[in-house]
């Protein structure tokens, strides 16, 4: 039977079990990684044999897996690579890591979430640390010296992945609490587990970082095998890789990982304006600098202004968005988009205010605020050029000053804006302000910068009518217990089929765009899924393609 579940934030309820599921399982007390060369091992109570149940052996300045030579052979079937496990991102040189991360993005795009500065801010602030159930154990893959070299010591960093020992499932946004419940019914321990991800960030991007793209698949496979080996040697229940690319999911599926698919809502500005005529007069909205339509360029790719975007929507959706923005403009608030030097000039004070508002908002929504105040201040100091903080300010006649009353935190790469956190002042409510700061202002910034994509975070069907269409996101899972793996595998076969068909239905029935553009968008998504070569999706994609052909024939 399929367990019927519902989620509120990271809380999970299983109707089949009739109780709140064990989001923490039996919360294990894991030994913390020690300094000064002390040997550290973590043992799983599930495994009887303890000979190989070590997370890592730390010796002096070097941290490597207990059986490095055997692991290296298992990884590559050759002495080409050696694996290392590090207890902190600070133990790898920032420039070396960022060079690898840039190469993993293809060398032409950047993803701030896999940068050394972002990962360091998570660890330094205590947001992702052992005390919070996130024990770092990042894997580095280094190439050995050439056959002619005199020394055999590992040197060039050829691959890496962020990895954490988890004793709960919070902050991952790929919900596996029902799997933990099943493991408990099978008499197994689901925690601790290994999680390869960017903590608290439901953002798709490379998870298996590779430097030399000519060897991309080889190194990705090597990292996949390394993860399996670490899971088997440490006695954890398995390893989970979340929000990885479709290509990585296909490579790992080939190694026996289970592929899971989910839905997020993204805005993709890859098609030129299909129709720039509207049945509504062009309006100038107070506080919206880009709201006046301009004549489209002849060979423009994608929308260049917000009005061009609105022109592609159905009339009812276009009218609704205009009304929302009018309501916000009438509030008399000042909206600013801060980044770079302008953001630096605000100092730490603006981050303290934003964190207080974000925490209060999360508390009111019965959620959990994972990020510590120090994370935001460090982010502002080290990554201001990649941060976009959209704020709304209210004027006070008594003080003659503008005071921040709401804010939305975004990160920017070379081809995308990612919306992450939102907060509003305690006790205040401004109608439609959330939509303005989180969605419309992000679109405005993307249009100005010529960025082709905006991702607005996890969940949220309300994003659909504002131009954010459903997209598939992927995760990969290796479960060590055969019974648990068989049960989860059977479930995922059915779940993937339903997810893809749901994407089709939502796109065609609820898209705010006109039909031609909607069909084009669905066709693009199916083509992307097909090109990923994920075998477990093939049969479902066949039925979606048949549906599209019928819709296109009907449209013509």
Query: Helix segment count?
Result: 15
Strand order of the largest sheet: 7-10-11-13-20-14-19-18-17-16-15
Write down the overall mean pLDDT: 81
Amount of beta strand: 15-25%
Number of strands: 20
Helical proportion, percent range: 25-40%
Radius of gyration using CA atoms only: 24 Å
Overall form? globular
Biggest sheet layout: 11 strands, mixed
Uncertain stretches of 5 or more adjacent residues: 1-78, 272-300
End-to-end Cα distance, whole Å, is 42 Å
Estimated structural class: alpha+beta
Descriptive notes:
- The protein has helices at residues 68-76, 94-104, 116-124, 177-185, 216-234, 246-254, 306-311, 315-329, 340-346, 349-364, 373-382, 433-449, 482-510, 515-531, 538-555; strands at 5-8, 11-14, 19-20, 57-59, 62-64, 81-86, 134-136, 138-143, 157-161, 164-166, 193-196, 209-210, 238-244, 258-268, 334-338, 387-396, 401-412, 417-424, 453-455, 469-479.
- The chain is built from 15 helices and 20 strands.
